[in-house]
Amino acid sequence: MPISKITGDRNQANLPQDLERYCHYAKELGADEARVVAASEIPVEDAVSFKCRVPQCYAYNNCGQCPPHAPKPDEIRQLMKGYSFGVLFVRRVSSALLKLNRSDKERMATFRSILEIVSKLESAAFYDGHYLAVGFGAGSCYSSLCDPKQGCRLLKGEACRFPLKARPSMEAVGLDVYRLIVSSGWEIYPYGSDAKPEDIPVANLAGLVLIQ
CA-CA distance, 44 to 131, in Å (whole number)? Predict the structure, then answer.
């Protein structure tokens, strides 16, 4: 892979072509849809991350990338001011998959695939000279990358087992995934603990990589 020389404007001249290439790359890596979104149009809501707390998610306070340890929505709103665009992607999965136990290998691999796409898009952008690229995944890396029985190393003051893949979920930092997907023209349904897979035609797992 050729590595781009970094310019004073962080390679802005190549950004339009690079963003389109990242969308294609996301699909090559397994995403079903991908598009460029303006950072100014990405909704950040305190209520979204609050939903990690009420009703309390299994990963709340159990993972260094989840609330209350994840970046707060106010931090993300400030962060967004330094970015122009994002690459949003979704992978459509069986509704029944989300009903599987979190320790199920297929379920873990599917959620892990989102983090892997995010990591590879981040890396591609970094080596293209967009060195401030940063990404967010779907679900908690606590259950998709680690063995919950061992606990999160970050919370023990130790090094993360998977520093190049572990990322906060979009929801953990307040990104309104439902609104983003709807505004992209893609199909999405509310999926909660009482949902029946046969009532939901499709489920989505989403990821986002911000590019300056």
Answer: 23
**Maximum Cα interatomic distance, the chain, rounded to a whole number of Å:** 53
**Encoded amino acid at 125, one letter:** A
Q: What is the pLDDT of residues 53-79, one digit of tens each?
A: 999 999 999 999 999 999 999 999 999
- Give the pTM: 0.94
Structure tokens at 205: 């797992």
Residue 10 binned pLDDT confidence (cut-offs 50, 70, 90): low
- State the total domains in the chain: 1
Q: Residue 207's closest CA among 69, 62, 38, 91?
A: 91
Checking phi first, is residue 179 left (phi over 0); if not, alpha (psi -120 to 50) or beta?
alpha
Average pLDDT over residues 88-110: 93
Domain range enclosing 138: 12-211
Q: Tell me if 37 is assigned to some domain.
A: yes
CB contact at 8 A, 171 and 70: no
Assigned domain for 39 exists: yes
